[in-house]
Here is the input.
Amino acid sequence: MNPARTIGPAIVLGRYTGIWVYIAGPVFGAVAGAWAYNLIRFTDKPLGEITKTASFIRSTRRS
Here is the structure.
């Protein structure tokens, strides 16, 4: 899924049906990443309380 190989020919041929994925995907990913960053960075709660299950944290502490 190389955007340059998809968007370039789509513009030349005038077929814009699948381009929304290449535009909406990065925007949605950036918004979701910023939301997750703010959730983790600006909270005083411990990680186990945020995730409700801390099983992955317990497994990393054992090893």
